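Open question from group meeting: does this chain pack into something compact, or does most of it stay loose? Before anyone orders reagents, we agreed to write out a predicted structure and look at it together. Recording both the input and the output here so the notebook holds the full record.
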Amino acid sequence: MSAKQNFLRSRSSDQSGHDESQWMSVSDLMAGLMMVFLFIAIALMRNALIEKNQIKEVAVAYQQNQVAIYEALNNEFKDELAKWDATIDKDTLSFNFQSPDVLFDRGKVDVKPRFKEILNDFYPRYHEVITNFKSSINEVVIEGHTSSVWNKGTSSDEAYFKNMRLSQGRTRSVLRYVHELPEIANDKKWAKRHLAAVGYSSSRLIENKSGEEDVKRSRRVSFRIQTNAEIQIRKILKF
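Structure tokens returned:
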């Protein structure tokens, strides 16, 4: 074998060894990167699992709290519900007054005397019940609902907005009345932060079994409790 051939063979061998060394370095780098990505994936999965469990705990606590509030309200008012023509919705925690002739005069926003008598009895006791759950209550919304009916010759859109103004005025009247009750004088600061009045007009009608609007039942006032479960879940998702 000539010297030239030996030189080329030696160079080829060196080049092969160099390439092999380079390949091993790249392989080691790729293996290292894969391990890093694997650890990141495991960490993300772990955080997602923790987050999921935290949300589940909030949901379970919310459900238990929902039941506890409903049972407390039902135990306090079960003897008055029929007398007041009222109901308590277990799913929404709404205390519904459903007798429109007792609540307001047609087209008026002033609380009628009989409804004032009911509120005098109802609200101090209601406030006392929910006081035990203050830490989990975000807001108590006094809701005003109307039927879709208005004077003849009024379009459906006109009727909706006229009823909107009516329902808003009525809920403000109820809010002001209960806010001025002497029994809650020492708790007005909490009431100002957590009591709200909202008029929904005819957007949430009550229907009868045949699916038609129940005009009388649609005209109602509700005290609905909103818990802070959603806020707690948002905090978990944020952090």
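Observations to bring back to the group:
The domain at 55-238 is CATH 3.30.1330.60 (60s Ribosomal Protein L30; Chain: A;).
The radius of gyration is 34 Å.
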